[in-house]
């Protein structure tokens, strides 16, 4: 006897499944006008299939037995017309329901992508790109396989089943009861296998997500893997995940392979029972040969829908497991939302204030502690300090990728929490150490933040970023197609294109995060010149480990362990002979020994 907790657990699973399916069906709302047409077509197909055996049995008793050849040919003509009508209705229903389901699934993919794009940066700190891709592609594809065209077949077979049952009882209720005696056994068998399969299919969805993550990591980090001689270890780790996914799928397939023969056995059992008892009724004169013949056809038709419905129910377990993962993502709370009364950020002048700002990615561990800073419009603020000191966190708070734990970040004396994120970031530009370029033309990459820019605007931005001459030297100029992450451009060339991207949106506040590292000396000179032009008239925050690049900054802030320990101009901090002066001397000495 099962314990109370196991019963409650089973009830909760059923309730969760019901909620998942109910939510999935909400995607049908845009197709309310199409659904009645589809159901009508399904009904026509079901009726035509159920009428056929009845007419065949009637023809045996009333036409063939009487030698009525003319009537037999007339009946054949009627049967042909009925089946043609049924085929046309089934074809149209499959097309219409398929169109509905594909539209539904397209909207589901759109919702997933929209959710991913709108989630805060903090979500991606704890999530894996491969798993998110798996939900968008693999899980939706599983739903497509289960519901895409099977729904049309399921509805058709469900109505056919009802029509067949009505016809069977109308012809001979005794044979009808005999034919249906295996239905409870089928329901029990389906319930038993589906509960077993549901667990296995949930495991397959989880393992394919882990596998996708490992695959994505293996593709994007292949250079590092080769450089660190880690290929064999990566292959072994992938093989373990691949084997786990294989085993999960094999177990799920094993359940399905055991389920279908069980249904076939019950089908054969019912057919044998009808044949034996129907034959007895025919011999004793209690039923005609035509009735028995019609019943044998009905029995075959009766179990075919049950087989399809049972198979669909099993496949649906995998789809529901995928839907559960999808809806978990869609229900992910938007931790960083605009306030209900959020206003549009007015034209930014460029004053930035941190007022007693504290922040921690983990509530129990602060990264910034009571930070105060002020940048006047047009000033360049350099942030220096060791890795992990909190420099990038300051940048993240200005862009409002995160909200402060305490204190306030203000721009032009307006708390960034009180304005919409879009209107805030629209007036900011960012150039990172490892800027991402996208598959597309060079012009499209420059216009990434300003897709309506004219060609003249794009070229003007490229000229200001010192990259126009290089672009025009390419085979197709600005229309040159770039590959993933900007291949085949070099790091420096990608950096110049990124600067042009920032120039084009004409930001009032500019973020530069290690923008001149990892590039050669000649390209660095071009980048430095482009950055100098970009900084003019803009408030800018520059993170740099090369202290020689921030000597002209209006303020240099030295960050250590989440606090500003020194501040001033380059000359003031050198004269102070403190932390900054020591760092600068160390770098100057290191450079002189090269």
Please render the helix and strand layout as text.
Blueprint: H1 4-25, H2 34-64, H3 69-118, H4 121-125, H5 129-147, H6 150-171, H7 173-179, H8 183-220, H9 222-227, H10 231-284, H11 289-330, E1 352-359, E2 368-375, E3 380-384, H12 391-398, E4 406-411, E5 414-415, H13 421-425, E6 428-431, E7 440-441, H14 442-446, H15 455-464, H16 468-473, E8 481-482, H17 491-505, E9 509-513, H18 521-535, E10 539-543, E11 555-560, E12 563-568, H19 570-576, H20 579-592
Helix pairs in contact: 1-11, 2-3, 2-6, 2-11, 3-5, 3-6, 5-8, 5-11, 6-7, 6-11, 8-10, 8-11, 10-11, 15-17, 17-18, 19-20
Please summarize what this structure is.
By secondary structure, this protein is of the alpha/beta class.
Broad CATH class of the largest domain: Mainly Alpha
Q: What helical percentage do the residues reach?
A: 55-70%
Please describe the biggest sheet, giving its number of strands, its sense, and whether it closes into a barrel: 6 strands, mixed
The portion of residues forming beta strands comes to 5-15%
Q: What is the residue-mean pLDDT, rounded to a whole number? A: 80
Q: How many strands appear in the DSSP assignment?
A: 12
Residue windows where pLDDT falls under 50 for at least 5 positions: 4-10
What is the C-alpha radius of gyration, as a whole number of Å? 35 Å
What class would the helix/strand composition place it in?
alpha/beta
The CATH homologous superfamily of the largest domain = ABC transporter type 1, transmembrane domain
Number of domains: 2
Strand adjacency order, main sheet: 6-9-10-3-11-12
| Shape type | elongated
């Amino acid at each position: 006897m099962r314990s109370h907790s196991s019963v409650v657990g089973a009830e909760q699973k059923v309730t969760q499944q019901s909620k998942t399916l109910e939510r999935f069906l909400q995607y049908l709302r845009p197709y309310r006008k199409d659904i009645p047409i589809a159901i009508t077509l399904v009904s026509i197909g079901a009726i035509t299939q159920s009428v056929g055996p009845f007419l065949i049995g009637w023809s045996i008793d009333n036409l063939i037995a009487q030698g009525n050849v003319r009537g037999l040919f007339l009946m054949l003509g009627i049967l042909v017309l009925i089946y043609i009508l049924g085929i046309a209705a089934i074809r149209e229903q499959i097309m219409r329901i398929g169109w509905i389901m594909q539209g539904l699934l397209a909207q589901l993919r759109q919702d997933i992508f929209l959710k991913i794009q709108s989630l805060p940066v903090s979500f991606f700190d704890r999530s894996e790109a491969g798993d998110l891709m798996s939900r968008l592609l693999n899980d939706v594809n599983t739903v497509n396989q289960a519901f895409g065209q099977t729904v049309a077949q399921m509805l058709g077979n469900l109505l056919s089943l009802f029509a067949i049952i009505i016809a069977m009882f109308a012809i001979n209720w005794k044979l009808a009861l005999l034919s249906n005696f295996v239905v409870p056994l089928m329901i029990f068998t389906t319930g038993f296998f589906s509960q077993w399969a549901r667990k296995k299919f949930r495991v397959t969805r989880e393992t394919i997500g882990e596998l996708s993550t490992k695959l994505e990591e293996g593709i994007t980090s292949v250079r590092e893997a080769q450089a660190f001689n880690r290929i064999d270890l990566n292959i072994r780790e992938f093989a373990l995940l691949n084997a786990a996914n294989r085993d999960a799928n094999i177990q799920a397939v094993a359940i399905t392979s055991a389920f279908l023969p069980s249904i076939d056995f019950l089908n054969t059992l019912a057919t044998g029972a009808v044949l034996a008892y129907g034959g007895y009724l025919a011999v004793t004169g209690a039923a005609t040969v035509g009735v028995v013949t019609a019943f044998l056809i009905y029995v075959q038709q009766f179990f075919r829908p049950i087989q399809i419905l049972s198979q669909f129910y099993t496949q649906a377990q995998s789809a529901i497991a995928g839907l559960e993962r999808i809806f978990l993502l869609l229900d992910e709370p938007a931790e960083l939302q605009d306030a209900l009364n959020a206003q549009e950020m007015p034209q930014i002048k460029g004053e930035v204030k941190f007022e007693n700002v504290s922040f921690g990615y983990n509530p129990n561990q602060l990264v910034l502690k009571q930070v105060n800073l002020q940048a006047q419009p047009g000033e360049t603020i350099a942030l220096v300090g060791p890795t992990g000191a909190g420099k990038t966190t300051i940048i993240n708070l200005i862009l409002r990728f995160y909200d402060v734990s305490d204190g306030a970040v203000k721009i032009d004396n307006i708390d960034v929490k009180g304005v919409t994120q879009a209107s805030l970031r629209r007036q900011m530009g960012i150039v990172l150490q490892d800027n991402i370029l996208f598959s597309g033309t060079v012009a499209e990459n420059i216009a990434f933040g300003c897709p309506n820019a004219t060609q003249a605007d794009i070229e003007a931005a490229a000229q200001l970023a010192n990259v126009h001459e290089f672009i025009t030297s390419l085979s197709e100029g600005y229309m040159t197609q770039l590959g993933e992450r900007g291949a085949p451009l070099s790091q420096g060339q990608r950096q110049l294109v990124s600067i042009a991207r920032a120039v084009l949106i004409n930001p009032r506040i500019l973020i530069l995060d290690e923008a001149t590292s990892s590039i050669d000396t000649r390209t660095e000179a071009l980048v430095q010149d482009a950055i100098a032009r970009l900084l003019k008239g803009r408030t800018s925050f520059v993170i740099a480990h090369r202290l020689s690049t921030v000597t002209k900054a209006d303020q240099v802030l030295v960050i250590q362990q989440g606090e500003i320990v020194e501040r001033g101009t380059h000359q003031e901090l050198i004269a102070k002979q403190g932390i900054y002066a020591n760092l600068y001397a160390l770098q100057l000495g290191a450079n002189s020994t090269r």
